[in-house]
Design goal:
- By secondary structure, this protein is an alpha/beta fold.
- It has a single domain (about 5-240), classed as Purple Acid Phosphatase, chain A, domain 2 (4-Layer Sandwich).
- It is about 35% helix and about 25% strand.
- It has helices at about 15-25, 55-70, 85-90, 125-130, 135-140, 145-165, 170, 175-185; strands spanning about 5, 35-40, 70-75, 95, 100-105, 110-115, 190-195, 200-205, 210-215, 220-230, 230-240.
- The strands form two sheets. Strands 4-3-2-1-10-11 form a six-stranded mixed beta sheet. Strands 5-6-7-9-8 form a five-stranded mixed beta sheet, with helices on one face.
- Helix 1 packs parallel to helix 2.
Length: about 240
């Protein structure tokens, strides 16, 4: 058996090929796993569990079918879908996990993050993150009509793309010192995250121990997952037609 990790699919109605690729993944690779971890930015935007759009309904039905086959599904919030709540999670057969979670992955303590908290050099984003993660801000947003929330989501997506295009490459990546801090605080030798869209395996030494940071890729032209088993971890990709 194996445990699978994915992130950064950015599912959206404008990208039906990604949704099809994800459903194929669920019907093939995922059915052979004991658990699937979704580490954020699963949806390109989430405006609330009461969203009546077609895409969230199709996705929840497919995830629930996988759960009913015996595959446990865990969801960690990203910077695009942090409003996803217990209602939708239950409908999709998912269990929500904290934004910083340590699991025993076949004998190795492994820290799971979306990855945005590692990008401390991006001061503007961290200030924005602090604002939108407050319960007061979220309550105010969720109290607005669906149409207003859809307009806000589009506005935030457009603003994010515009701001990111002006930022230096190193600002958009993780801060190495923050990686060490979070792995040390969690007392782990392995970290799995997404967010940066820079899939890779990085070896580093922390307190004299050889450690590893594995970064998931985004689903654009390729699908990405980490397959973990008793034999170790594989970072796998495949073409999306």
């Amino acid at each position: 058996m194996s445990i699978l990790f994915i992130s950064d699919l950015h599912l959206h109605e404008s990208r039906p090929q990604i949704t099809r690729a994800f459903f194929h993944f669920l019907h093939t690779q995922a059915t052979q796993a004991e658990a699937l971890y979704i580490l954020g930015d699963f949806f390109d935007a989430w405006i609330g569990d009461d969203d009546d759009a077609t895409l969230p309904q199709l996705v929840s039905a497919e995830l629930l079918a996988l759960r009913q086959q015996g595959v446990a599904i865990y969801f960690q919030h990203g910077n695009r879908d942090f409003l996803l709540g217990e209602g939708y999670a239950a409908k999709a057969g998912m269990s929500l996990i904290p934004e910083s979670t340590v699991i025993d992955l076949y004998g190795t303590a492994t820290l799971l993050l979306h990855g945005d908290t590692l990008c401390t050099a991006d001061k503007d984003y961290q200030q924005f993150r602090s604002m939108v993660r407050s319960s007061q801000w979220q309550q105010q947003i969720l109290a607005q009509p669906l149409a207003a929330r859809r307009a806000l989501a589009k506005q935030l997506r457009d603003k994010s793309q515009s701001m990111n295009s002006l930022k230096a490459e190193d600002i958009m990546d993780v801060t190495p010192d923050e990686v060490v801090v979070q792995m040390t605080n969690a007392n782990v030798t392995r970290l799995i995250h997404g967010h940066t869209h820079r899939p890779a395996r990085h070896t580093l030494a922390i307190n004299g121990k050889i450690s590893e940071r594995i970064v998931l890729g985004d689903w654009h032209n390729q699908g990405w997952c980490i397959k973990a088993s008793a034999d170790g971890c594989e970072l796998i990709s495949w073409a999306i037609a």
